[in-house]
Amino acid sequence: MYLCNFNYHSMTKSISGFSRLSKSKKIDWIVDTYFTNNKNAKKIIKQYWNTDEQLQSLHDEFIENTITNYYLPLGVAPNFLINGTLHTIPMAIEESSVVAAASKAAKFWLDRGGFKADVISTTKIGQVHFKYFGNKEKLISFFNELKPALFKETENITQNMVKRGGGIKDIELKDKTHKIEGYFQLHATFETLDAMGANFINSCLEQFSKTLKEKAQNYVAFDEEEKDIDVIMSILSNYVPECLVKAEVSCPISELAEGTDIDPYEFADKFVQAVQIAEVEPYRAVTHNKGVMNGIDAVVLATGNDFRAIEACVHAYASRNGSYSSLTHASVENDQFKFWIEIPLALGTVGGLTSLHPLVKLSLELLHKPTAQDLMKIVAVAGLAQNFAALRSLTTTGIQKGHMKMHLKNILNQFQATEEEKTKLLEQFKDQVVTHSAVVEAIEKLRS
Ligand code: MEV
Questions:
Q1: Co-location of 128 and 232 in the same domain
Q2: Are 86 and 79 spatial neighbours (Cβ–Cβ below 8 Å)?
Q3: Ligand 1 pocket, 288 CB below 6 A?
Q4: Mutation pick for ligand 1 pocket among 97, 288, 296, 401 (CB with most ligand atoms within 8 Å)
Q5: pTM (2 decimals)?
Q6: Same structural domain for residues 259 and 356?
């Protein structure tokens, strides 16, 4: 039995003990509470269950209170030549034109030497935030004595990572008292190899916190009040400006517009100007970077990585010089067009969902089982390619032509067009501008 309270403010019910209900009881409560047509709501929820019970229970257990699965299409973009190796990139995304745009950009650069990518650094960061109101000199001396113990007392956590070449790189004491009275940090840097490293880092930090508090209690130079170090929290930072990857493309300007009637010099010039605008104008930079993230998030999701962490970090990085700016850059020098991205990406190819979710495993196999560094390169390339495709359209034809062509099928599905209607309308709109109203009109005409 569950307990329900009617809440007159929200005109709905609150509930205690929801998480302890069976899945079917949770669904009953949801549909009875929120839906007038509860039969239909239940049908939709169940429609997305997997018939393979084992697979369904795997998904049920990823999170609490699972009632069904939420599908996104998993598409693939072939022909990505990265450092001389061909890749077909898996992308999980709902936006109609993203995979098509990535594939188009991949093909374009395949004929011009492909993408080059390099990992610049792989350092991750974690912090113990604490309060200390005593003598600063004493804290510094205490920290110098404490530091070896911080390494020693995390050895059971770090030993496997150290064997493989990773672990804790350094731990610093940071004085943040100019920001908040009494605020200090243990600021630690980590190398987590092929793991994204969140669990590893957080486990180390929680041990640091224990060691810090215990050793402070026994530090003879501290007065009684100084011994009571108050740890506020211990947590990794998702901001990883030292976990950086660079990807680039370049070619002679004359090759930029082959097979089109565009003037390549005019195109290169407009393209560079479009990037410059995104470098200086935050309103444009956000949309510009959103296009970059269309490519990045789709691969991050397909490979089971944490896209919220990536998003939070990338946008902080885009603001690192005090104003939100473009993640990509372009130049024209000596008749050579160059376009590149430098971006922080904390990714993992082991741990987390990577060994659990069958589609994530499949995606990683499709990418030749990449190391985290390989994946950083692939993801950066996907972002660059996406941005290239967007800017190419924006500075030439505009994006709506291609975008609405891809969206046409969505509009037809919205109107539950039959296969026959779809064939006719797709044909009709081959050389007609796609707008929502034009499609609706065409459907109505066809049906009358
Ligand atoms: C749409 O999802 C993304 C674009 O708006 C990106 C851009 O404007 O550069 C096309």
A1: yes
A2: yes
A3: yes
A4: 288
A5: 0.91
A6: yes
Same domain, 107 and 50: no
**N residues, the chain:** 448
**Residue at which a domain ends, from 220, 237, 254:** 237
pLDDT digits (tens, 9 = 90+) for 34-44: 999 999 999 99
Name the residue type at position 282.
Answer: P
Q: For residue 399, which atom of ligand 1 is closest to its CA?
A: 10
Question: Per the domain annotation, does 348 fall within a domain?
Answer: yes
> Do 214 and 171 share a domain, yes or no?
yes
Taking the C-alpha atoms of residue 297 and residue 314, their distance in angstroms, rounded to an integer, is: 11
Asked if 167 contacts 161 with a C-beta cutoff of 8 angstroms, the reply is yes
CB-ligand 1 contact for 291 (6 Å cutoff): yes
Tokens representing residue 83 in the block? 């450092």
**Binding site membership of 124 for ligand 1 (Cβ less than 6 Å):** no
Torsion of CA 306, 321, 119, 330, to 10 degrees: 110
pLDDT confidence of 207, banded at 50, 70, 90?
Answer: very high
Question: Given the CA of residue 97, which atom of ligand 1 is nearest to it?
Answer: 2
Q: Which of 142, 129, 235, 145 is nearest to 182 (CA)?
A: 129
Q: Are residues 233 and 368 in the same domain?
A: no
Cite the active site residues. 95, 290, 306, 403
Confidence of residue 448 (pLDDT cuts 50, 70, 90): confident
Looking at the structure, tell me whether residues 375 and 263 fall in a common domain: yes
From 93, 277, 281, 294, the mutation candidate for ligand 1 (largest count of ligand atoms within 8 A of CB) is 294
Any atom of ligand 1 within 6 Å of the Cβ of 287: yes
Q: Is the CB of 390 under 6 A from ligand 1?
A: yes
Q: Which of 213, 214, 164 is nearest to 190 (CA)?
A: 164
Q: Are residues 298 and 323 in the same domain?
A: yes
* 430 shares a domain with 382: no
CA of 401 relative to ligand 1 center, distance in Å:
13
For the stretch 386-431, pLDDT in tens is 999 999 999 998 877 777 777 888 889 989 999 999 899 988 888 7
**Strands 116-119, 183-191: pairing kind:** unpaired
**397 Cα: distance to centroid of ligand 1 (angstroms):** 14
Domain annotation covers residue 96: yes
Question: Which neighbouring-strand residues pair with 81?
Answer: 86
Confidence band for 3, pLDDT divided at 50, 70 and 90: low
Q: What is the pLDDT of residues 164-199, one digit of tens each?
A: 999 999 999 999 999 999 999 999 999 999 999 999
| Region of poorest pLDDT, from 149-163, 339-353, 369-383, 414-428 | 414-428
Structure-token pair, residue 5: 């309270």
Structural domain count of the chain:
4
Domain residue limits at 423: 403-447
pLDDT of residue 10 exceeding 90: no
For ligand 1, atom 7, which residue shows the shortest CA distance? Answer: 288
- CB 399 less than 6 A from any atom of ligand 1: yes
Counting from 1 in the atom list of ligand 1, the atom nearest the Cα of 387 is: 9
